[in-house]
Amino acid sequence: MEEVAFMKIMKRSGIEADFDVTKISAAIKKANCEVAAVDQLSEEQIEEISTNVEKICSDIGRTLGVEEIQDLVEDQIMNKRAFVLARKYITYRYTRALIRKSNSTDKQILSLLECNNEEAKQENS
């Protein structure tokens, strides 16, 4: 699997980064380790999914966001009929989203408490 140098992804922060297919494989492998052996995909199947996602991204011809790429990974896992693994992957994504949301909410609350929130400073009360 060769990395496509010209492909970019849009990170959640809004910054463009180089597409790295190894991150897709690593994410699938992490989820794969969390399911029973009978529900696991082989190394070859994981590499095939990664290659398929890379090709789809390349064929789309535009910069995709992380969430869009993760959706493609989910679709590819389900195409392999690895539904237990797909559920694990989806659950992990959801949990990470909650943590990100929690962290940003905590920062917003902290900025209000420290009177660092620009909106609160500009408020006429």
Overall description:
The chain has 125 residues and is mainly alpha-helical. The protein is built from five helices and three strands, in the order E-E-H-H-E-H-H-H. It has a three-stranded mixed sheet with strand order 2-1-3. 17% of the residues are buried.
In short:
The chain is mainly alpha-helical. It is built from 5 helices and 3 strands, in the order E-E-H-H-E-H-H-H. It has a 3-stranded mixed beta sheet with strand order 2-1-3.
Runs in which pLDDT lies below 50 for 5 or more consecutive residues are 1-5
Q: What is the end-to-end distance? A: 60 Å
Q: List SSEs in N-to-C order.
A: EEHHEHHH
**Helical residues, percent:** 55-70%
Q: Compute the gyration radius: what is it?
A: 19 Å
Shape annotation: flat
What is the number of helices? Answer: 5
Largest sheet: 3 strands, mixed
The class by helix and strand makeup works out as mainly alpha
Strand content: 5-15%
- Order of strands, main sheet, comes to 2-1-3
Total strand segments: 3
- The average pLDDT score comes to 85
Helix and strand arrangement:
Elements: E1 8-10, E2 16-18, H1 21-33, H2 43-60, E3 64-65, H3 66-79, H4 83-113, H5 118-122
Parallel strand pairs: 1-3
Antiparallel strand pairs: 1-2
List its traits.
disordered N terminus, three-stranded mixed beta sheet, mainly alpha, 125 residues, single chain
